[in-house]
Amino acid sequence: MSLVERQDTFTVDGLALEGGEGSVGDYIALLKPRVMSLVIFTAFVGMMLAPGHLHPVLAVVSILCIAIGAGASGALNMWYDADIDAVMSRTAKRPIPAGKITRQEAFGFGMTLSVGSVLTLGLAVNWFAAAFLAFTIFFYVVVYTMWLKRSTPQNIVIGGAAGAFPPMVAWSCVTGDISIESAVLFLIIFMWTPPHFWALALFKCGDYRKAGVPMLPVVAGETATRNQILIYSLALLPIGVLPWVFGFASAAYGAFAGALGLAFLGLAVQVWRHREGDLARKSAVRLFTFSLFYLFMLFAFLLAESLIVGA
Q: What's the Enzyme Commission number for this chain (predicted)?
């Protein structure tokens, strides 16, 4: 039996869940719209910061292709991880474990969007950006989802690169190549990802343990995870300021990024200090929530500066 044929149904506690009746909303859910929104935003900032000019229509096509590529990655992630999603409380209501869409349907949907987004980007914009988008999808689906996620507690550290590539892809849509500036945008997201997801893993540790996913708190323990969150938060503080250091953001951005980085570090210290009971969980939740605000505000400031300079 082939891999795709085997995905037609899956079982939870011995019961096969049949799909095939998914609504438009279910297919949208496969795209992980919340993750996609962050991808779109960071990619748009990368495009706005890139030197050169891209016709507005091609700019819209570029962002749309990057968004669809991210959504395709999400659909293929849900296709492969349906067995894990079914036993985790935060993912059990996703379309496949809920029985609304089959694994085979999700696979076909994800592959169609993957190929379509890459080909469209190549034909309409440039093939370097298209190849970069194809690599990003491959990295998330094959390297992270199929390999790292189930095999190592460093899954988020290495796999986080997939979520950090979109600004570089968008940059390459404008320039046809990559640069130190786009690499800095990548590095900010790359270093932000581990403390962001490990904070989530701390208060969802039971879910990951039940699903057999070797997240750091499950394998190395919560103390080691708190130590790693603190280390990465310390490293993120100067990295967030790099756009000013490399001259593509103002000193005002540098001061703003430094202040946000200190706030991030302060919350990481609280996570490191509070190790038991409800206070420990609240500290992890606060850091996870603030981390989203941190990344959004850094890129929003960069975007605002680019718009002011270009006005």
A: 2.5.1.141
